[in-house]
Amino acid sequence: MSIFLEKPNKFNEDINEDNKFNEDNNDKFNDTVNDIVNKTGNESQSESFENYVCSHKLDYYNTFDNEDLKINDDILKGIYSYGFERPSPIQRIAIKPLIDKKDIVIQSHSGTGKTATFIIGILACIEQEKKHPQSIIVCNTRELAQQTVKVFDSLSEFTKISCKLCIGGDMQFKYTSDNISNHVIIGTPGRLCDLVSKKMINTDFIKMIVIDEADDVLSAGFRKQVKKIFQYLPKECQVALVSATIPPEMSELFDAILKPDFVSILIKDDQLTLDGINQYYINLDEQYKFDAIIDLYQFINVGQCIIYCNKKMKADELQNVLKTNDFATGVLHGDLIQKDRENIMDEFRNGKTRILIATDILARGIDVQQVSLVINFDMPKYPQTYIHRIGRSGRYGRKGVAINFVTRREQNILDYIKRLYNSEILPFPEDVSSVLSAFN
Questions:
Q1: pLDDT tens-digit series, residues 314-356
Q2: Which CATH number belongs to the domain containing residue 83 in this structure?
Q3: Are 202 and 246 within one domain?
Q4: Which of 25, 119, 373, 377 lies in the 20 to 30 Å Cα band around 235?
């Protein structure tokens, strides 16, 4: 895309990946909404809707079948069959700009229907009779790409629109002898970059590219691959960036990848937390974290739980401790081959294992409806990761609980997160029954 070629320097700048728990970065992070509104040049037109601030005056729609949305009957059947009766707030305002071919930034909490929002927007724009790729969805992990395909297949069930999963780690997704002719391509940056550069994906007719978990995909780790993908796209290609968090370094790239009149729909600063999730912390020394997990499970009987560790070795060690105490657990991190990762996720979704121990590979975009408890065994390295982690519980309006294990060295991280998200994180109560009420 020529936008990248015109402004390559911004796109090539290195992002500082250090742990930035300081006041200067806090100020930058909290100024992001105002900065993005100013970038559009439409500050006077900005308005609020529900928990969002929009850069433009946008119409909102209370039903999916509103004739102004022009969503055809086959897509509507898929929407209703998937279980959506009425649009969520983000769907009420974001689907129309997508259909209207506007470049857009969508920020919304985990579990609010972001994925369905951009998939519905894509489906409404696909010309089914034309058998070539028309849209690309870029996901930061294989698991998120697979989850997105499942949502896409459900929503497109009654149409003739097809999608292709393109991820690494498995030969069936890795190489193909034929050019890909599916309408929509869903995959990870490295695999998509490879297929696009080898001309196995024809990008001549791509109308829209969606970057999900954009704060991660646009980070330094994926920068080279994403830039290359964009260089193959038509100049007029629509760009949609979707994420639960928008750190300052991400907003600095907007000029390079979005058209000047792009639409932004952002969470209000004072709403940047997750309603319906009770958040607690437990102060303890590192050596007592394993015992604390065992003690918690003597008192709290939950359906399923995700426990986050910062390091793979710590995750494996915790799994061994829990297995020794007869807990059915799975562990998920980047050292596992794709087939094992899929099996572990399937067992967790099916309820065969009640506890999933994971590194941050699972913190983004994975939808497991039964999760009601998230435990941060280690506090996250980056502030935006906190929202992604605890968003695994309390999805779609359900109640949930997040418990943070906090050592003396991690206390500053907890304090920073509380200030950053204006969030109430309480000491874990001695009366455990008050926590249990969240699971009733």
A1: 999 999 999 999 888 999 888 888 788 888 988 888 888 889 9
A2: 3.40.50.300
A3: yes
A4: 119
Q: Which two tokens stand for residue 380?
A: 């996250």
Instruction: Calculate the CA 47 to chain-centre distance.
Output: 25
264 with 327, same domain? no
For residue 432, give Cα distances in angstroms to 148, 187, 280, 297, 401: 37, 43, 12, 11, 12
User: Containing domain of residue 32, as a range?
Assistant: 2-268
DSSP-based three-state secondary structure for 278: strand
- What distances in angstroms separate CA 286 from CA 87, 283, 290, 406, one per listed residue? 44, 10, 8, 8
Torsion angle of alpha carbons 90, 92, 98, 99, nearest 10°?
A: 160
Same domain, 227 and 97: yes
Residues 296 and 209 in one domain: no
SS (H, E, C) 127-144: CCCCCCCCEEEECCCHHH
Domain count, the chain: 2
Q: Is 116 exposed, middle or buried (0-12, 13-18, 19+ CB in 10 A)?
A: buried
Same domain, 306 and 399: yes
Beta strands of 233-315 (E only): which ranges?
238-243, 263-267, 277-283, 304-308
Question: Chain-centre distance of CA 422, in angstroms?
Answer: 21
**CA dihedral of residues 395, 276, 279, 141 (deg, nearest 10):** 20
Q: 365: which 2 tokens?
A: 């975009």
Task: Round the CA-based radius of gyration of the chain to a whole number and report it.
Answer: 21
pLDDT tens readout for residues 228-284: 999 999 999 999 999 988 877 788 888 889 999 999 999 876 555 566 788 999 999
The model's pTM is: 0.73
Contacts of 193-199 spanning 24+ positions with Cβ under 8 A: 193/225, 193/226, 193/228, 193/229, 195/166, 196/228, 196/229, 196/232, 197/228, 197/232
| Helices (H), ranges, 100-199 | 114-125, 142-155, 171-174, 189-197
Whole-number Å distance between alpha carbons of 107 and 215: 10
Residues 6+ positions from 6 with CB-CB distance below 8 Å: none
Query: Same domain for 256 and 289?
Result: no
Kindly state whether residues 242 and 288 are assigned to the same domain: no
CA distances from 261 to 30, 85, 117, 231 (A): 23, 32, 21, 21
